[in-house]
From TrEMBL:
Keywords: ATP-binding, Coenzyme A biosynthesis, Ligase, Nucleotide-binding. The keyword ATP-binding applies. GO terms for molecular function: ATP binding; ligase activity. It comes from Candidatus Gottesmanbacteria bacterium RIFCSPHIGHO2_02_FULL_39_14. Transmembrane segments: none annotated. It comes from the Bacteria. This is Phosphopantothenate/pantothenate synthetase.
Length: 250
């Protein structure tokens, strides 16, 4: 479908088309379309802009990722179809890998997403191998299947468009969890150490830039960013922004 770039919702329409293509080509799950719709509703309430609270979270996320000994980027079907290039750029900058992790799991979808990432940069993808797989405790879905060398041994995980169960389980395993979720009311948003309440397509380029800016700072500087960061406050600011938007409209 040809989308007029002047259409006020052009970006959103383009993203929908990408996701539909992703479903047709076995990369995105049909349920991913519904999750995207939920995200869009919240994005509307956030004026489809990266808000100041998201910028603070992006800075804290960059500090956590740079301080981590073994960071990893977790990717699902929606994130892959929308932002595969950004994942690769960030993984290169951090010298870390990307692991495919799916709620609606199928071997074929994992392979397709891995191939998509491999076509962009084979070094950055952690290719799943049967003998390397482990099952994380306390996760009811197939998201529990992870690679020992990837999420299994990581100390900091970027988890965009997450389900609350896995986020909570990763936090319980003492991992630092950075979530990207437009819904500040989700369990994921509540449990993560850092919640970026923003559209993944807008915030990943900003996260890349922030990591680049902070990359040469010393450990103490990064620790100060983390110590002065309060995720509950960020979530409250996001909720207040939504209320203010509704108030202004009434
Ligand atoms: P939880 O289990 O944490 O309560 P949920 O059931 O809402 O969350 P999912 O259905 O897995 O979780 O949906 C993933 C989340 O991703 C949703 O909260 C949705 O708001 C968010 N989301 C969807 N599209 C985007 C996007 N483009 N950018 C950022 N977040 C998004």
């Amino acid at each position: 479908m040809k989308i007029d770039p002047k259409h006020p919702r052009a970006l959103s329409l383009q993203n929908r088309e990408k996701l539909v293509w992703g479903v047709k080509n076995g990369i995105t799950s049909p349920a991913g379309l519904i999750a995207f719709g939920r995200g869009e509703a919240f994005d509307y309430l956030l004026s489809e802009r990266t808000q100041p609270f998201a910028k603070k979270a992006i800075r804290a996320a960059a500090a956590y990722l740079l301080l981590a000994k073994k960071p990893i980027l977790s990717i699902n079907g929606n994130s892959a179809i929308l932002c595969a290039n950004e994942f690769i750029r960030i993984a290169k900058l951090l010298n870390c890998r990307i692991e495919v992790n799916l709620f609606h799991y199928s071997q074929s979808r994992v392979k397709k997403i891995e191939s998509l990432l491999k076509s962009l940069d084979p070094e950055r993808v952690l290719i799943s191998k049967k003998e390397e797989k482990i099952i994380l405790p306390e996760i009811a879905s197939k998201r529990a299947i992870v690679m020992r060398e990837g999420i299994g041994n990581s100390d900091c995980v970027l988890v965009p468009l997450e389900d609350g169960d896995r986020c909570q389980a990763l936090v319980k395993m003492q991992k630092k969890v950075i979530a990207i979720d437009l819904n500040p009311l989700s369990r994921t948003a509540k449990y993560a150490q850092v919640t970026i309440v923003d559209n993944i397509c807008r915030c990943l380029p900003l996260l890349f830039r922030e990591i680049k800016d902070l990359k040469n700072k010393d450990k103490r500087f990064l620790e100060e960013i983390i110590n002065s960061y309060d995720n509950n406050k960020i979530i409250n600011e996001a909720l207040r922004a939504i209320c203010a938007k509704l108030d202004d409209t009434l």
